[in-house]
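Researcher: I'd like a structural prediction for the single chain below. Treat it as a standalone chain; there are no partners to consider.
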Amino acid sequence: MSEAKCETGWGDLSARALLDVERPSPHPAAHFMSVDPRASSARLGPLQGRVRFHRREIEEQRRRLSKAAASWQHAAVWRSTGICMTTQRRSYETGHKPKCLVIVDDTAEWDRAVYYASRWAVRVGGGVVMLRIIAIEDQNQQWLGVADLMRAEAEDAANEALDRASGRANGIAAITPERVIREGDPTTQILDVIDKDVDISMLVLAANPGPEGPGPLISMMAQVAGSFPIPVVIVSGDLTDAEIDGLS
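Model: Treating it as a single chain, here is the predicted structure.
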């Protein structure tokens, strides 16, 4: 699969552009102080109007950059990984079949995503890939062997979670999902799994219906939806089996 350099998409805000605006003006201060801020651009001189517009444009660029930088840090991962999928998905080509990716975590609503994905797989004759991501937070205790113990316990827990999810999918649709265990940053691992399997055509997530929010993955997706490489289906955690049956 070919890769392409990811662009930030935040516009051209080079150091030179900033210097061009922020360097002291060779014109007297009175030249600009005499401008009435309520006056329309049609009444301004060509230089005055151009300077005011350029400064306003730079301020808008700064505002956009600040807003993007302040959002959840994972939003930049898709661009910083350097993995931009430019090849077409092959899900419906001869010798392939469409698959949906489901994240199996410890949230209460994971079952809703598995139920929807399993029903969808039966409907389209596709498959399900279940991903469990292990996050080892403290790697500085390896010299004590603590990190190795934590990793082993996390792998056991991951296999148990995938066992439950796979059994649920088999009971719903008589299918045997593919299982993947990854360790590391969730956004990076999700993108890498998609990148390595050209048959994955959809990501299925379930949202927490409670007042505490939809969950960290849903929050992350809200930040990267515009650049995500495949469609994302978000299933409400409040939907019943019968309601999902009617949707899938």
